Amino acid sequence: MIRRDFLKNSALASGAFLIPSFLKPFEAMANSELTGYKNLVIIQLSGGNDGLNTIIPYGNDIYYQKRATIAIKQPEIIKLNDMQGLNPNLSALKEIYDQGWMGVINSVGYPNPDRSHFRSMDIWQTGSDANQFLTTGWIGRYLDSNCTVNKDPYTAIEVDDTLSLAMKGTKMKGIAVQNPGKLYQSTREPFFKELVHEHDNANLNEDNLGYLYKTMIETYSSANYIQQTSKTYNTTAVYPNTPFAGQLKSVAKFINSGLKTRVYYVSLSGFDTHTTQQNQQGRQLKIYGDAVAAFVKDLKQANKLDDTLVMTFSEFGRRVEQNASNGTDHGTANNVMLFGGKLKKSGIYNNAPNLSTLDNGDLKYEIDFRDVYATLLDKWLNVNNSLVLNKNFAGLDFV
Amino acid sequence: MIDNSKKIRHLYSRAGFGLRFEDLRMAEHSTVKQAVEQLFKSSEEIKPLDIIAGNIDYKTFLSKGNDMTKKMFFQEQRQQEKGLNVYWVKQMSDTNAQLREKMTLFWHNHFACRTQNAWYAQQLNNIHRTNAIGNFKTMLLEVAKAPAMLQFLNNQQNQKNHPNENFARELMELFTIGRGNYTEQEVKESARAFTGWGFNQQGMFVTRPNLHDTGQKTFLGQTGNFGGEEIIDMLLAKKETAKFISTKLYKYLVNETPDPAHVNAMADVLYNSKYDITPLLKFVFTSDWFYDLKNTGNMIKAPVEFIVSMNRQFYVQYQNPDIMMQFERTLGQVLFYPPNVAGWPGGKNWIDSSSLMYRIKIPSTVLNGGVIDFTGKADPEDEAFITNTLKSKQAVATQVQTQPDWDKFLGEIPAHTSKTTIAQVILSPALNSSVMDVVNRSTDIKTMVIELVSTPEYQLS
Fold first, then answer.
1. Does chain A have fewer CB atoms within 10 Å around its N or its C terminus?
2. InterPro entries attached here (chain A) (predicted)?
3. Which stretches of chain B score pLDDT less than 50?
């Protein structure tokens, strides 16, 4: 049989042929198994979002005293309770909040906070202590802990060109997909295809060469799976015309088409507001709020909102007192926003941030961010959090 | 390829950034020992980076400036960072002192540091380069006094009434003896010894005696009014430090999995030479075990090694050097931006679906307008793909604006060199059947070479 015929006769369309069976034991999963397939969407706000001007503690006078020129005026605030309210640029989220699909956890942080962007982001992405350097991310370790089931890179998808540390484990890594069509195209370069199909099985040892080939084969098959599955779903929902909304639209398309992905990761940057904060942060919050509202509604109409949980974080909040340039400098604890159809406790989860007892001008954290992660791991992704976080966290009660 | 040439190939891929055919012509008639000497001789020259002309003191700049000048300042700062980055990659790509640059890259990772001040970054990088194959103690002392490090690990804020332990902790954990060989109390005591070490507005090291704690400190079993230099002496007197450095070097030069016997032998050499680095490197490069099959063709190139090895091998010139920084970013290693003070983790950590796809795609982008001319039998569905990529070739070439010197590359290949030998020079791992397929079906050298550099095998050194 010449090669061309052989290719035709094998399962070319699935892209799974010639892949040793030990790599693909659970290739096909029946559609019925997909209902109730819970997924987590992580949204990273990069640069250190000012949580106090996002979910505003308007009921506390100290807020207005410390932020003479950048505080949001009371009439503009969309009140959530008699203490806290939304930045007006998040007005699209009010409807979501009222439906019970949004939650806010105040004062999330960690001991001995680091005010450097990259270090604090590292800590949030790896789930480490402040004085510990981990080379794997918390989602990556989730993949590792569950790798007999979640053995494909598409178990965790980052909608981006490159993969964040959060998504890298020791054995398993997620996959970065900005555009499934493009990824599919690039893996179909004839030479690349040939490498995937004609490699020597001996190349698949546990050494580095085997790892490279294994990654290549998985990329090839994941690109195919993601493209073929997601293209079956035609998005009708309307999204704002921003790149970030486009990314969430891709995530919704993936979820609504029934992709067997447990974790999605999306980032929005531009929150490092040292100067003239109001316009800059307002613009970013509007991009964020409008996109998330469209996303939640899209999932709702597709009956997927109950299976989805969205968590938004930023590497740190900002100092309570504004600086001299109408901005804010790097701070510590911050709020975490949650969205989903199955929040056990929606609305504001805990007390508003304490603005009177500060640590050197910064908020004291009240909830360790790893308790948030632990909740997601234990109650949503169904894996014991100590396997991922290296020690056990009690977790919270929002799902 | 004869055995000796294979050894020299391996030597160049680990002690440098890969073997060129011109190197092979020179080296193939030498013994390993002579080739090692030659590498050291070429690296005698020290060419410091000098693209950043001076220090912009941003504190005074910012305190005076309005928002507009601030914006200009940050733009200038970014421009400098980019300039410095690209300048170093070019130096690695063009230099004859490749061992020195390769070791500079090692120390850049060992003393991982970030600063937004490009002048300080350049200064620290030059400390690493000057001492790259010199003496570790000299380098460590200079690093400890460099503004970039004083700032990064907060020793600038380390003063007797408010000690900051950051530098003292990383000095032990990451720079010298490693975890498990010191106590928390020793972190505290040694931090006191470094109180007052800082830098002034001109970027010069100062001791600031009024901030220095002159009390008694107990450290590694000794008590006295120690200063920073003495702490460093005591750390280096511990054999564990020689072992820690040797382990890290072994993982950089030999194998990701350390062999205890080899590492111990290395530590002996380093310790006995009072931390001179050259004897240690010569010991490694002339040891038989360095050339063992299990230590060849098995290490994943760091992104910068990958880029530099390609630049060197094909004499690539960049009309738009920023593209190199884009490569660094997509592959996950931006020079001067290590992920944290522990440096880049390396090995399999470099590889995920997207970074591997980029690695496989980048060589053809740089060398051939993004096209891997396909010499296999194309499927009908491939034909459309091939037609389309050929159309886009010009567009890609315009975008990346690279100029490989194919004439030089092909001209350096000795006449009558077999295709298999060429493949052996390009790829580090032993040629397996899929690589041999590429070699056997190819009809011209250039196409074959582009295919070979677009393989997983090319990711290894």
1. N
2. Alkaline_phosphatase_core_sf, DUF1501, TAT_signal
3. none
Q: Is B417 exposed, middle or buried (0-12, 13-18, 19+ CB in 10 A)?
A: middle
Spatial contact of B451 and B386, defined as CB atoms under 8 Å apart: no
DSSP assignment string, B347-374: GGGG--HHHHHHHHHHHHHHHHTT----
Residues from chain B that touch A186, judged by Cβ atoms under 8 A, are: 357, 361
- Domain limits, chain B: 1-42, 238-295, 299-459
Q: How many angstroms away from the CA of B274 is the closest CA of chain A?
A: 30
Q: Do the beta carbons of residue A112 and residue A130 sit within 8 Å?
A: yes
Mean pLDDT of chain A: 89
Q: Do B374 and A168 touch (CB under 8 A)?
A: no
What are the pLDDT digits (tens) for B45-69? 999 999 999 887 666 666 666 777 7
Tokens of A203: 């190349």
Task: Determine whether the interchain pair B374/A194 forms a contact, defined as Cβ–Cβ distance below 8 Å.
Answer: yes
Instruction: Please report which helix (H) or strand (E) contains residue B234, including its range.
Output: helix B228-237
Residues of B in contact with A153 (CB under 8 A): 352-353
The angle at the Cα of B371, spanning B366 to B374, to the nearest 5 degrees, equals 135
Q: How confident is the model over A238-289, as pLDDT tens digits?
A: 999 999 999 999 999 999 999 999 999 999 999 999 888 999 999 999 999 9
Q: All domains of chain A, ordered by start, with CATH?
A: 34-179+241-389 (3.40.720.10)
B376 touches chain A (CB under 8 A): yes
- Phi–psi pair at B21, nearest 5 degrees: -60, -35
A72: number of Cβ within 10 Å: 23
Closest Cα partner for B370 from B358, B361, B382? B361
Beta-carbon contacts of residue B200 (< 8 Å; ≥ 6 apart): B206
DSSP-derived 3-state class of residue B79: helix
Partnered with residue B199 across adjacent β-strands are B205
Check CB contact of B78 with chain A, cutoff 8 Å: no
Dist CA B238 CA B140 (whole Å): 15
Specify the DSSP element, H or E, that contains A5: helix A3-9
Residue A246, burial from CB neighbour count under 10 angstroms (0-12, 13-18, 19+): middle
Tens-place pLDDT, residues A73-123: 999 999 999 999 999 999 999 999 999 999 999 999 999 999 888 899 999
ipTM above 0.90, yes or no: yes
Q: Which residues, numbered 56 to 75 in chain B, qualify as contacts with chain A under a Cβ-Cβ cut-off of 8 Å?
A: 67, 70
Residue A18 pLDDT > 50, yes or no? no
Place of tokens 């060419």: B47
Report phi then psi at A135, rounded to 5. -100, 5
Tell me which chain A residues have a C-beta less than 8 angstroms from the C-beta of B345.
135
User: How many other C-beta atoms can be found within 10 angstroms of the C-beta atom of residue B154?
Assistant: 14
- Sign of the alpha-carbon torsion through A87, A91, A94, A97: negative
The DSSP bridge pattern shows strands A263-269 and A39-46 to be parallel
- Pairwise CA distance, residues B402 & B392, whole Å: 16
Q: Are A126 and A166 in contact (CB under 8 A)?
A: yes
